[in-house]
Design a protein that fits this description.
UraD-like; mainly alpha; 182 residues; 8 helices; globular
């Protein structure tokens, strides 16, 4: 790192950031990290190929742009890898049954897992938010629902990417582990 020189001051080298590590990572490592955020190879390829990013906002903008450009096949690939968010451990069993039934109805109607961005929803409200989302979206026609699911995936990818960058201070994320926020 090159020291920053200020008149009359001692130069202090800039510390590398997680974004620097992502920008400088081998292409396969960057793609593997991106695939934990959104399981579309086309999306991961596009975001990784446009490195280096000057800042996190530029990376998130590229993530959004690539997500907006997903083809129907890309969207199907990403949706096929999604699962419902996990419920808190102390959630009562009837809630799991209700969620399983709602998810089965959704999957039967649309042919893919229900995806929802929970944002800052408190854990105790997640179940209600998910069930409400499934019930309201079951009334969508398939084309409308694909557009809604694509938007939810875009938002999830952005959140997961931010979490990965804030993670353990490096770009090491296990592809076998469920992505955060799912």
């Amino acid at each position: 790192m090159t020291p920053t020189h200020l008149p009359g001051r001692v130069g202090i080298p800039a510390l590398p950031t997680v974004l620097d590590a992502f920008n400088g990572a081998p292409l396969d490592d960057a793609r593997a990290l991106l695939l934990t955020c959104l399981r579309s190879h086309r999306w991961a390829d596009r975001v990784a190929a446009h490195r280096p990013y000057p800042d996190v906002d530029a990376l998130l903008a590229a993530s959004d742009e690539a997500a907006y450009d997903l083809s129907s096949a890309d969207l199907s690939e990403a949706l096929a890898a999604e699962t419902l968010p996990t419920l808190p451990d102390d959630t009562y069993s009837a809630a799991h049954t209700a969620l399983s039934a709602a998810q089965a109805a959704y999957e039967a109607r649309f042919g893919h897992a229900f995806v929802i961005y929970l944002g800052d929803t408190p854990p105790r409200q997640c179940l209600d938010h998910i069930l409400e989302g499934i019930r309201s979206r079951l009334t969508n026609d398939p084309e409308e629902e694909r557009a809604v699911a694509a938007e939810e995936l875009r938002r999830l990818a952005k959140k997961r990417l931010l979490e990965a960058l804030r993670g353990a201070g490096n770009c090491a994320t296990s592809h076998k582990q469920p992505a955060p926020g799912t």
